[in-house]
Amino acid sequence: MWWVRGEAARARHRERAAIFASAVGQPRHLLDSVRRGLLVVILLAIAPIASASMLQGVLQLRRAGEEAQHRLLQGAIAGAGSQQNVFASAENVLQALKNVQAVRAAGGECAPTLYGATLSLPFASNIALIGKDGRVACSALAAPGQDLSKYEWWREVLASKVFVISHRMLSPITRQQVLAATLPLYGDTGVFEGAISIAIDAGWLDNLLKRETPLSDGVAAVLDDDGTELVSNAPDISRRLFADTAAVQTSGALEQATDEAGRSWTFATAPLDRQGLRVAFAKPTDQLFAWTTLHVAVSFVLPVVMVLFTIVAIWLATDRIVLQWLLYLRRVTAVYAQGHY
Fold this sequence. Notes:
It is a single chain. The strands form two sheets. The chain has a five-stranded antiparallel beta sheet, sandwiched between helices. The chain has helices spanning 2-23, 34-97, 101-104, 110-120, 152-158, 202-212, 235-241, 245-248, 285-288, 292-337; strands at residues 124-131, 136-139, 164-170, 177-186, 192-201, 219-223, 229-232, 255-258, 264-271, 278-284. The chain has a domain at 98-205: Beta-Lactamase (2-Layer Sandwich). By secondary structure, it is of the alpha+beta class. Helices cover 53% and strands 20% of the residues.
């Protein structure tokens, strides 16, 4: 008898399982599923927020670039201000000396006058009057008759009618690294009569730039119109960073370079508005954009994380809160539809 009751119970269980199975249908299209429909609606709702966050990251990156450019240019101009003052002072002194008749005549008072002028200038190592043939006619230091015509900077003087600053070179008179700042001399008829030149101590300029712009603030250098380095607060680093002539001749733009250790630097250049001179200023890229990379990454990663959490939350919530009850109601409805009350 118990065996008959067991068979009857199993038959009722199979019938009930069949009824429940018939109540579970498959979605006919994407939005026919409650879970999928909610996911699509929520994703469409958060899409503008995610897009705005990514756009904010792009704008922040651009703004960081503009701020970095401004900081580098300000550092370059500030660091080179004293250098520009030195060159302006040298030109003013030469303009004054060219009007001193004792100097122009290369007479007995020429050397003492030039020597006194040299002592009054902390950056000057020598001042010399040079004849039109390139030979020293008079000098603060004893070097009369020395031929300077073989040097490239003298040929630049012959081709110019204005104040000229040479490349960095070894002075044949003082045997020091100098910049020859030279003013061509012309007579009343416009005939070239020679030049008066001041040897600016390059080491003194380097030390001045180091005081004005310590290496901890960045690497600064003064370059000529060819991109050749004249003055630097860190010559070993700057020669490598500013070796790309095309890059250093681009005013204002941010450029990238690496030092010998492989560290990335970002630099910008600005004109000094004198003789085509330029100033370049560089800072390590990781210092310049210290937090920018993190902020931009967060702006892009946050929307992705938000979407993932939304998908997981909706998937679990619809399954536990909505779908279980809908499935139960569907099964009850199917049972009633089969006439089981």
